[in-house]
Amino acid sequence: MKIDETGLDDIIDLSRYPIDALETQAGKRLIARCARDLESKALCLLPAFVRPSALSGMVKEAESLVPRAYYRQDVMKFSGDEQADKKWPLGHPNRADIPGRYRQVLSEDIPTNHLLRRLYMWSGLTEFIRLVFGFDTMYRSHCPHLSLTLKIAGPGDTDGWHYDGNDGVVSLLLQKPDNGGQFEYAPYIRSPNDERYDALGRVFADPRTHAERPNLAPGTFVLFNGNLSVHRVAPVGETTQPRIVSLLSYDRHPDQVFSPEYVEYMRRFPTDAKAQATL
């Protein structure tokens, strides 16, 4: 997919975040600050990353895609294993029932001329993310379905506790709801060699005490180590507008794709467009 990379200054505030000049002192300071945040907190926040006019345009484009979104409504075991109750003792976190309820627009339904697609396809952004994560290589996900997605959450919707399955998940908050829908996470709660189930259980039991709640404003660009930091989006309360977030996926390997079983699972859920087509 070829995208015109010119004119990204109309999307990103490059005077504040000199991603187009990473070799300069200002660019190096930005990389160093983000890397420190990621190492210490598993999270790097770049508020007002997207210019207000571009943000407004992204919200309108996202709203136009809602009819194509799959509306997931289910409850799954945290481990993803339907036999979890037979494999783990009562009270074990892997047996926890995790709700998932949100609309998701898949990558193939986000047009090439949309602002969000232009942002994702900019090679300068990929290089910036590589340097912050400290990897030798970094590529946009090769997945045709989940490389770039939108999640839209209205009243009662939630994206339950989970870990991410790829090297670098990056998000951009486009719109906040009036109430609820906070991003909550427990930084580096597990390691590659230790799941730390006791600590995980405490997060599930009392997230207000054991999870962080960063203040995210629309237009904030987020780099996050979600592979080692369990996280969720808390249920959205009463609101006149949905929570809208975009997920941009990257990996150290050029051929990374997400599970086709998950994609097929999502496609079992209804979309507004499908419902109208059956009328």
Short description:
With 279 residues, the chain is of the alpha+beta class. The protein has 9 helices and 11 strands. The protein is globular, with a radius of gyration of 19 Å.
Question: Could you give the count of β-strands?
Answer: 11
Question: Average pLDDT value?
Answer: 94
Give a short account of the largest sheet.
11 strands, antiparallel
Number of helices: 9
Which segments are poorly predicted (pLDDT under 50) over 5 or more consecutive residues? none
Query: Mind telling me the C-alpha Rg?
Result: 19 Å
Q: How helical, in percent, are the residues?
A: 25-40%
Protein model, in words:
Strands 1, 2, 3, 4, 5, 6, 7, 8, 9, 10 and 11 form an 11-stranded antiparallel sheet that branches. α1 (25-41) crosses α5 (123-133). This protein has 279 residues and is α+β, with helices and mostly antiparallel strands. It is 28% helix and 23% strand. It contains 9 helices and 11 strands.
What is the topological layout?
Elements (H helix, E strand, L loop, with lengths): L24 H17 L1 E4 L5 H14 L4 E8 L6 H4 L9 E9 L9 H7 L1 H11 L5 E2 L7 E6 L4 E5 L5 E8 L7 E4 L10 H9 L1 H4 L10 E4 L5 E4 L9 E9 L8 H7 L5 H6 L2
Antiparallel strand pairs: 1-9, 2-3, 3-5, 3-6, 4-11, 5-11, 6-10, 7-9, 7-11, 8-10
